[in-house]
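Limitations

Structures in this collection are predictions, not experimental determinations, and the ligand pose is part of the prediction. Treat each record accordingly. The example that follows, with (2R)-3-sulfolactic acid as the small molecule, is included so readers can see exactly what is and is not provided: the inputs are given verbatim, and the output is the predicted complex.
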Amino acid sequence: MKLFFYHTPEAVPPDGSPNLAIAIDVLRATTTIATLLAAGAEAVQVFSDLEALTHTRESWAPKPGLRIGERGGQKVAGFDLGNSPLDCTAERVANCRIFMSTTNGTRALQRIQDTPIVLAAALINRLAVVQYLHQHQPETVWMVGSGWEGSFSLEDTVCAGAILDSLLAMEQQPLKNLAGNDEAVAALALFQSYQHNLLSLLEQASHGQRLLHLQLDNDLKYCAQTDVLDILPIQREAGILVSWSLRSSNPKQTGSGQI
Ligand code: 3SL
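Predicted complex:
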């Protein structure tokens, strides 16, 4: 197995074909997706375009559904929820199809949606991702950071490093066997420097500061935790993520598509 890390969707090679790709948006889209599925959402369907999202949600009615929309860190006017994982309680989201659009995270998912297996990772579900990699041994893995509007982000890089760090321990392999590019090695070094102080790194990050200006301190605290959710969001069909059960090696949701 070789893991490659790309800082942004734009950095992904145009003609590569990994066996598995992982979207990372610690602040906050993939953290929110894992939390939604942990709270019992039926599935999360991602969109870059708000109009397409609203149209799809309307055709989903009368089944239960919620629209999550974020632009500039804030809830899109008229939507049910913004992108705060702290709003994703079971009371609100259980059994609902979630229609979601965010500035960067949903774009990263769309960039890799043609890969045979697509996962969503954050710090909170890092171990679930690593266990899946260990069980399935994909040959080539791309980890794709969402960044911010095409630029590098500290929080997605540290999460890629956290995945590699935990996988190295589980596989009992030297770094040179698992790291596919220099970005992966640098991500590991960042994680190893900050692993005991992830919250301070998120507070230092430019997007962390943007969220702090919006008084979202508790969101940062939540997103900085590692391995607190045993949930693995996996793509069931293009743009639709459901929860994978590691224990049964099966998707928990029943759906029409094959994973
Ligand atoms: O860019 C994104 O996809 C969002 O996660 C950004 S925010 O944390 O909701 O501001």
